[in-house]
């Protein structure tokens, strides 16, 4: 079941209160249209009736897709500084629903799920896209680290994130990434990466052992885990 509640959110342009159907939980099995809207960038987007400004409400909900084994707790981008606290919260919620606090049936479902914690819309649709492509998000984050080290003139900045987009269907065998403004989710610059680089990260256990350990058993699997102290 997907749960909604009507809330009023001030327009970032003129301050007028705009009504949103805020979601508390998204069940992508019963509402695949909501999954599509999240990936396309249309979910929880409204236009202000006064000035016409179109904007999105920050995510703060639980996303579940039992068929794909996805359990994601999403928080607003500004909550990133509290990722340690939020990760503990995510762990408690998952354990209560699908872990040791859940029923036997729920625990059986939970064993096939991959629980994750994200901050902001770009991080949420990235997790969905990574899983849809049949890739491992830890390997993707390690690949990003390698790219940040070796790609010259990248637009890396405090509010710019490198996010996985998809596997292009042009037969090149590449992975598509994009630089995204984390505050607006605006696409800034695209990047194509040979699939071999992803495979090399998976194969070279020794080089990536330490960084891979940082993500071991974590719910917050994101490069920003390594550069944000967290409350």
Largest sheet: 5 strands, mixed
- CA-to-CA gap between the ends? 32 Å
Strand residues, percent: 25-35%
| Contiguous runs where pLDDT drops below 50 for at least 5 residues | none
Percent range for helical residues? 25-40%
Total domain modules: 2
Q: Pairing-aware structural class of the strands and helices?
A: alpha+beta
Give the C-alpha Rg. 18 Å
Provide the descriptors you would attach to this structure in a database record.
single chain, 231 residues, alpha+beta, 2 domains, five-stranded mixed β-sheet, three-stranded antiparallel β-sheet, 8 helices
Describe the overall structure.
Helix content is 35%, strand content 28%. The chain has 231 residues and is an alpha+beta fold. The chain folds into 2 domains: 132 residues, no CATH class; 83 residues, no CATH class. The strands form 3 sheets. The protein has a 5-stranded mixed β-sheet with strand order 1-2-5-6-7, sandwiched between helices. A 3-stranded antiparallel β-sheet has the order 8-9-10. A hairpin with a 6-residue loop joins strand 3 and strand 4. Helix 5 packs across helix 6. The longest helix is centred in the middle third of the chain and has 16 residues. The model has no long low-confidence stretch (mean pLDDT 91).
């Amino acid at each position: 079941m997907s749960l909604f509640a009507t809330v009023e959110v001030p327009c970032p342009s003129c301050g007028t209160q705009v009504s949103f159907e805020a979601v508390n939980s998204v069940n992508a099995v019963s509402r695949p249209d909501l999954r599509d809207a999240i990936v396309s960038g249309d979910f929880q987007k409204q236009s202000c009736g006064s000035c016409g400004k179109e904007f999105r409400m920050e995510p703060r909900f639980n996303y579940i897709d039992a068929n794909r084994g996805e359990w994601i707790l999403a928080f607003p981008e500004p909550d990133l500084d509290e990722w340690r606290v939020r990760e503990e919260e995510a762990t408690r919620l998952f354990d209560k629903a699908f872990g040791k606090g859940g029923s036997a049936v729920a625990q059986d479902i939970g064993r096939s799920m991959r629980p994750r914690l994200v901050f902001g819309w770009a991080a949420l649709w990235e997790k969905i896209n990574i899983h849809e492509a049949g890739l491992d998000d830890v390997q993707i984050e390690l690949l990003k680290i390698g790219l940040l080290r070796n790609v010259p003139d990248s637009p890396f900045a405090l509010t710019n994130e490198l996010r996985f987009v998809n596997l292009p269907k042009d037969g090149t065998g590449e992975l598509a990434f994009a630089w995204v403004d984390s505050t607006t989710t605006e696409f800034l610059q695209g990047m194509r990466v040979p699939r071999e680089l992803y495979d090399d990260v998976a194969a070279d256990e020794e080089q990536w052992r330490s960084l891979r350990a940082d993500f071991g058993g974590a719910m917050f699997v994101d490069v920003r885990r390594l550069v944000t102290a967290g409350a």
